[in-house]
Design goal:
Number of domains: 2
Distance between the termini: 75 Å
Strand content: 15-25%
CATH class of the largest domain: Alpha Beta
CATH superfamily of the largest domain: P-loop containing nucleotide triphosphate hydrolases
Number of helices: 21
Shape: elongated
Bound molecules: zinc ion
Radius of gyration: 27 Å
Number of strands: 16
Helix content: 25-40%
Strand order of the largest sheet: 11-12-15-10-16
Structural class: alpha/beta
Largest sheet: 5 strands, parallel
Length: about 500
């Protein structure tokens, strides 16, 4: 007989419904699979038949045709095993389950019929809750925390094929509840705290602005000056995630197979710091159509330490997501895109030896070497960095003599207040933070007077800013004014924002 089973595949981070059609007819035993499956799906046949046999069913004693639709969607991975097994058992009338169309199946089977976890369950669950809320989602036990993150959805999470078949007879008795998953949600990520950082007021100020308005930053200074330490404190002052941001970021991590079952939906903004050997594919994604670092940093920070050590090609491919907030990949079977709206943070030495901007040690680099080193960071990339900060190296006795700084929690309060101002100003926008604004909106919200505007224009001319650089400078000024809770952007706000573009002016001209 004929049986149709619902399952799902991922395109980027989007869940696409897939139908598995199984037709069993009398005739010579055989098995054919159509609908553009890749090798993993072909191998599924062997796994599924073994698993069925180990549960005491017969495997393939009729003529069986399996079709997966839509046919033009590339289906990979082993997530269809469970649906395939249920379909084959139902089509050969070895099991009888009422209302099979109300269930959606995902999960990999082992040869002895255990269910193994698969990627992207949260994307499927969120999609179902939106478009087919009556569906019951059937996933492997190890994916249960992920599925119940979407609280409205009915979920069954068996450990084996046998447990699954029993559960389907009386689904009401085996629904998972969402409570257990959020037990561990109170445990916060431990990050460095700004109270441990002595001195460095200018760097702290710049990072506060970055956190408040989502502005990209670059820290330049001698080795050991504390660039990396300051950057590591940044997660502690970022504004809280909004609910939709949290769901979006968790879905991306789920699709990358990095869902943290202890914490459920992500509570704090991601902070990703890939090593400088990172390839283009690992930065922007594409390997097995999985999201890359830029997408994992979505709604958070992508921090590149030792910026000039990164491959030039890897850095250049970040330009497009920096402008559009999305990574677009062209693949043989169509285009996919991943959200990638992140704050780019970076740190570097001013020269190969590291001491070109240091008063206390001599730089041993030839001017040509320094020029070549700095040119690894291209003009267009530097143009997109709003806060360019030199980190002075301060003698230990001087810095430790001063008082320890404010705690991250205190700074975060100001950041959160500035963020709320931005949110209220652009209530209907998903991306309300100053760093993400378009030029037209920017003009409407500056509320500056003629004198301030003239001041900004003169500075732009003097510093030879590009149009993009000028707009970005104005956005930073808007954030500085938000931090002091002012409606109007005034001259001191602009003056501070302009000096954050100083490196670009000295390096590139
Ligand atoms: Zn040097």
């Amino acid at each position: 007989m004929f049986q149709r089973i619902r399952s799902a595949a991922l395109r980027g981070i989007e869940a696409i419904p897939v139908e598995i059609e199984v037709d069993s007819t009398s005739g010579l035993p055989g098995f054919s699979l159509v609908g553009l499956p890749d090798n993993a799906v072909r191998e599924a046949r062997e796994r599924v038949i073994s698993a069925m046999r180990s549960c005491g069913f017969y495997g393939c004693s009729t003529r069986m045709t399996v079709n997966m639709s839509p046919a033009d969607l590339r289906k990979e991975g082993a997530a269809f095993d469970l649906g395939l097994a249920i379909g084959m058992l139902a089509a050969t009338e070895q099991i009888r389950i009422a209302n099979l169309e109300n269930f959606l199946f995902l999960g990999e089977l082992s040869l002895d019929a255990k269910l193994r976890p698969v990627h992207g369950i949260l994307a499927v669950a969120a999609n179902l809750a939106r478009y087919a809320p009556q569906t019951t989602l059937v996933v492997p036990y190890e994916n249960r925390e992920e599925a119940v993150c979407v609280e409205t959805l009915k979920v069954i999470a068996p450990k084996t094929l046998e447990e699954c078949l029993n559960g389907l007879q009386e689904p009401e008795r085996v629904y998972c509840s969402g409570h257990e998953c959020h037990l561990a949600s109170a445990t916060q990520n431990k990050t460095a705290d700004f109270s441990q950082v002595y001195g460095m007021a200018a760097v702290k100020r710049a990072l506060e602005i970055s956190a408040a308005g989502a502005h990209n930053f670059l820290l330049v200074g001698s080795p050991g000056a504390g660039k990396t330490l300051c950057a590591r404190c940044l997660p502690g002052i970022l504004p809280a995630m909004r609910r939709n941001e949290s769901l979006e970021s968790t879905i991306i991590h789920s699709c990358a197979g990095m869902f943290d079952s202890c914490s459920g939906l992500m509570k704090s903004r991601p902070f990703r710091s890939p090593h400088h050997t990172a390839t283009v594919a690992s930065l922007v994604g594409g390997m097995k159509l999985r999201p890359g670092e830029a997408s994992l940093a979505h709604n958070g920070v992508l921090f590149l330490d030792e910026l000039p050590e990164f491959q030039r090609a890897a850095l250049e491919c970040l330009r497009q997501p920096l402008e559009e907030g999305v990574v677009r990949l062209n693949r043989a079977l169509g285009n996919i895109s991943f959200p990638a709206s992140f704050v780019l943070g970076a740190a570097m030495n001013p020269c190969p030896c590291g001491y070109a901007m240091d008063n206390r040690r001599d730089c041993r680099c030839a001017p040509e070497t320094i020029k070549r080193y700095r040119s690894k960071v291209s003009g267009p990339l530097l143009d997109r960095i709003d806060l360019q900060v030199s980190v002075p190296s301060v003698p230990i006795d001087e810095s430790r003599a001063g008082e320890a700084g404010e705690s991250s929690a205190e700074i975060q309060k100001r950041v959160e207040a500035a963020c709320e101002i931005q949110e209220n100003r652009l209530k209907d926008r998903k991306n309300f933070r100053n760093g993400h604004l378009d030029g037209k909106t920017l003009k409407d919200i500056l509320l500056w007077d003629r004198e301030a505007e003239n001041f900004a224009l003169k500075a732009a001319e003097k510093w030879r800013m590009s149009h993009r650089g000028y707009d970005r400078m104005l956005k930073v000024a808007r954030t500085i004014a938000d931090l002091r809770q002012s409606d109007k952007v005034e001259r001191p706000d602009l003056a501070e924002a302009i000096q954050y573009r100083a490196l670009e002016a000295t390096w590139m001209n």
